[in-house]
Amino acid sequence: MDAAEFRRRGREMVDYVADYLENIEQRPVYPDVEPGYLRSLIPTEAPLEPDNYDDIIKDVERIIMPGVTHWQSPYFFAYFPAASSYPAMLADMLCGAIGCIGFSWAASPACTELETVMLDWLGKMLKLPEHFIAGTHGHGGGVIQSTASEATLMSLLAARCKAVRRVQETNPERLEAEVLSKLVAYSSEQAHSSVERASLIGGVMMRKVPTDNTYAVGGGMLKKMLEEDRAAGLIPFYFCATLGTTSSCAFDHITELGPICNEENMWMHIDAAYAGSAFICPEFRPLLNGIEFADSFNFNPHKWLLINFDCSTMWVKKRQDIIGAFKVEPLYLKHENQESGRHWQIPLGRRFRSLKMWFVFRLYGIEGLQAHIRKQVVLAKEFESLVRADKRFEICAEVVMGLVCFRLKGSNELNQLLLKRITESRTIHLVPCQLSGLFVLRFAVCSRVTDSGHVQHSSIFRSAAMLSSPVSSNHCAVDPCENNLTQNPNVYERKECRMSYFTFSICNFFAIDFDVSLTFIVLFVLQSFRCEPILSVYAASMSSSPTWVGLL
């Protein structure tokens, strides 16, 4: 491909991408494929001769797209957002064209310096303490990591190195291996799994601190655990606080935890992977109060600041704590400015990721980014209202930002079946979590283009209608997880019901009532195509063989 063809194909690709995103809601958000589907669709070996570009694009639609989970779909409500915007895509394209590997200032001065400036821009947007801003008289600064997992690992390894050095300064006879065996790190029981993984990689113990009834860690419980461990001869050295937990978007009480960590000479890291973006809005900034006690802080602009993956920003109070833990100087990397812009991350090579930040910040402005975040919070509040208005459901955690945790009143099995039905419908995508032993569904507003209509027309309530529906005294409803009719606040129990009168809500617009003469329901399958559902009931009668009854 020469420059002329690249120009032509580039325009075609821009059109393809724009068409894909403009029409993405026409595609099922969750793919209908089985593991291993792709291997049989592509050759077993790479082509010896070049393929035709047009054939490759056809194969994108034929082979790749059927297996894609469409994270940018307005019906994608799983996990947390994977940010995307046209300015970030253009910057990513330029990054690929420049093709530099910014492992040091000399390797690419612009790559190194723009990253430092962008982290200062973002730090000021968050109103971080001055010691985190590189372009001041402080000793800290910021760096882009690939993910929050890497940022957490970096902070733990730096804290470990600092703790070992501190112990050996006062007890030089103690070997590093002995000190390491005594080190203890702490995190919330609701912390992301990457925190525990960091402790495994770092070779240190990790203790999980119990949370309160809001799923947040308070100072009292941490202090109690520290006293127990010090009495046992252990050395507490690190605490990872979470602002916006993955399960429920809970916020640890860092104004309580920070002073304890400082008094105990422990490193406090704050992981705000999802929620951190919202702190650019003045109404959410108080949730970051206590940041002044932290030794390091990270969040992911690639979740909520319209910057494509990967872009995880991290700040440290004292950059020497990071640099000192990872400094290695092979001859081939030496240059006269070698102390600038190195030893801040685990990989040596790094992409020109700050270009994405520069493009997005300039083309959206702070106000545009704030508007995006506020819109998604409003949509989450709207969904919360819909859930609270339906007596079959309950809200399981406070809705602070763009995440709603909810469930059907009833058993975990019932909620597992609800999620299964939703997933099988392929019209929206959700994932679960566990809170206080309960199986809970998470509804996270993710797509940049999600609006009120998408929230209103999600198929959650339709899928739930087949499981348990508010009914009057002469109505029965089926709990398919039991093999009978059960009673709970919304469902009446009768072991046999020859004349069952069912009510199913469809699209929140109307209801279908029908009589069925049967002993029990064997199977109920709902296939939901937006607001045109097809209901099928597989009924087993005492006097006849199983028959299908289809209702349009």
Automatic annotation (TrEMBL):
Keyword Lyase belongs to the record: yes
Keyword match rRNA-binding: no
Keywords: Catecholamine biosynthesis, Decarboxylase, Lyase, Pyridoxal phosphate
One term under GO cellular component: cytoplasm
Pathway: Catecholamine biosynthesis; dopamine biosynthesis; dopamine from L-tyrosine: step 2/2
Matching Pfam families: Pyridoxal_deC
GO MF terms, alphabetically ordered: aromatic-L-amino-acid decarboxylase activity; pyridoxal phosphate binding
Chain positions found as N6-(pyridoxal phosphate)lysine: K303
One of the GO biological process terms: carboxylic acid metabolic process
EC class (word): lyase
Cofactor: pyridoxal 5'-phosphate
Record-linked Gene3D superfamilies: Aspartate Aminotransferase, domain 1 (3.90.1150.10), dopa decarboxylase, N-terminal domain (1.20.1340.10), Type I PLP-dependent aspartate aminotransferase-like (Major domain) (3.40.640.10)
EC numbers on record: 4.1.1.28
Annotated PANTHER family: AROMATIC-L-AMINO-ACID DECARBOXYLASE, GROUP II PYRIDOXAL-5-PHOSPHATE DECARBOXYLASE
UniProt record similarity statement: Belongs to the group II decarboxylase family.
Subunit description: Homodimer.
Official protein name in the record: Aromatic-L-amino-acid decarboxylase
Lineage summary: Eukaryota, Metazoa, Chordata, Craniata, Vertebrata
